[in-house]
């Protein structure tokens, strides 16, 4: 993807990648949307984002991996199930040469949706 080209939609973002990466990004998009169908899709921080009572998850395409950004809580909660992946504080890297781990992506996204709904509920109670 050309860095100076700023996508305004997730479709724009995905279309800037080679076909094989587009396919994986579309698959990733479907996984997170199936879990959080009421989330709004948008571009935030220059990458695809699902928004549900705040930023839910972000994802992005790279030369050798798909970056998944569920925030630190999403990683900490599932760290034992992520041992085969490169991790940092808020990032999981899924290599492009391996199938996406649908179950773990789904579980992390569902967990984040619960977290975001709880935060909103707590704010309304105050």
From TrEMBL:
Top-level taxonomic group: Bacteria
SUPFAM superfamilies assigned to the protein according to its UniProt record, in alphabetical order: YdhG-like (SSF159888)
InterPro entries associated with the record: YdhG-like (IPR014922)
Species assigned in the record: Pedobacter ginsengisoli
Protein name: YdhG-like domain-containing protein
A Pfam family recorded for this sequence: DUF1801
Domain YdhG-like: 22-110
